[in-house]
Automatic annotation (TrEMBL):
It comes from the Bacteria. GO terms for biological process: regulation of cell shape. Signal peptide: none annotated. This is Putative gluconeogenesis factor. Pfam families: CofD (PF01933). One of its GO terms (molecular function) is LPPG:FO 2-phospho-L-lactate transferase activity. Transmembrane segments: none annotated. The keyword Repeat does not apply. Required for morphogenesis under gluconeogenic growth conditions. The lineage of its organism: Bacteria, Bacillati, Bacillota, Bacilli, Lactobacillales. The keyword Cell membrane does not apply. Belongs to the gluconeogenesis factor family. CDD domains: CofD_YvcK. It comes from Floricoccus tropicus. Keywords: Cytoplasm.
Length: 325
């Protein structure tokens, strides 16, 4: 039998959790990664040398690599806050930036690094250029830039992206649309709804591909609500926003964690962007036309609530297997 083709779409620290588990399985794995991050090290680098932000791509490369643990620690090493111009920059970001400049393309740099790091699968930036995220709130107020969204006190309603360099329409990277159209299963998330998942989906070529692919589309709903993005959201609200952005229902299956997160466990200083556990709205999800898989997907670690990558991967593999049978 041929390998199941699974495409994972997102960014941030969410999708690496399940990519680490999926890469150990006998699947043809592709990650499509957002390039709209404009904060921290990624923001400084993209402004300095006009490349796609490297941070989310770095985390995905590490998650899909079989590199020894020591090499991973080197690639992920972050310079000390007192190190002048290098302060706060992960070494991997600088490596990606240097190779991007050398190759004349972040896309080409990621393909080269994928071979160098023994990545099992494909890693594609969703666009070959840095993108700017534009957010529109319910009161009509607009905020430019992903890193500025949480600063505005309002309810976020809609986002779109455009090329940072010249303001033109965002275009998908090479092979991204092909990967989506040929996939058996497409997984979105886990990750920030408006700033990690949607910046990929609202690229017009990707939106069209998502709506036309025959793949099973799976959404891994976040465990916690997020400050400035999804405050007071239920799982059904997350899915509704996805459907609203693409103009019709397209999510086939939603994976929902129903294990309680102990309130006293959460380190609210370390994870100050996360608020409360996402409410489970079974009827609301049914109204969105989704199959619902609710289970214990929770992993408590270092004072935070995360997805158990192996448990999520198992469900994704089951969905993919049913798709091929």
């Amino acid at each position: 039998m041929r390998k199941r083709k699974i495409v994972v779409i997102g960014g941030g620290t969410g999708i690496p959790v399940i990519l680490k588990s999926l890469r150990k399985e006998n699947v043809d794995l592709t990650a499509i990664v957002t390039v709209a991050d404009d904060g921290g090290s990624s923001g400084e680098i993209r402004n300095a040398i006009n490349i796609a932000p490297p941070g989310d791509l770095r985390n995905v490369l590490v998650a899909m690599s079989d590199m020894p643990r020591f090499y991973e620690k080197v690639f992920q090493y972050r310079f000390d806050k007192d190190d002048g111009a290098l302060a706060g920059h992960p070494l991997g970001n600088l490596i990606i930036a240097g190779i991007s400049e050398m190759q004349g393309s972040t896309y080409d740099a990621i393909q080269l690094l994928s071979k160098f790091l023994h990545v099992e699968g494909n890693v594609y930036p969703s666009s070959e250029n840095a993108l700017t995220l534009q957010a529109i709130f319910e009161d009509g107020h607009e905020v430019t830039g992903e890193s500025n969204i949480a600063d505005y006190d309002g309810n976020l309603r809609f986002v779109y992206v455009y090329n940072t360099h010249d303001g033109s329409m965002a275009k998908a990277s090479r092979k991204v649309v092909k990967a989506i159209m040929e996939a058996d299963t497409i997984v979105m998330g886990p990750g920030s709804l408006f700033t990690s998942i949607l910046p990929n989906l609202v690229i017009p070529e990707i939106s069209k591909a998502i709506l036309n692919t025959e793949a099973q589309i799976v959404y891994v709903c976040n465990i916690m609500t997020q400050r400035g993005e999804t405050e007071h959201f239920s799982d059904a609200d997350h899915v509704h926003v996805l459907h609203e952005h693409l103009g019709r229902n397209f999510v086939d299956t939603v994976l929902v964690n129903i294990e309680d997160v102990p309130h006293e466990y959460m380190n609210t200083h370390k994870f100050d962007e996360y608020l409360v556990q996402v409410d489970h709205d079974f009827k609301g999800l049914q109204a969105e036309g989704c199959k619902i898989i609710s289970s214990n997907f929770l992993k408590l670690e270092n004072g935070g609530a995360f997805h158990n990558g192996d448990a999520v991967a198992e469900e994704i593999l089951n969905i993919s297997e049913r798709r091929l049978s």
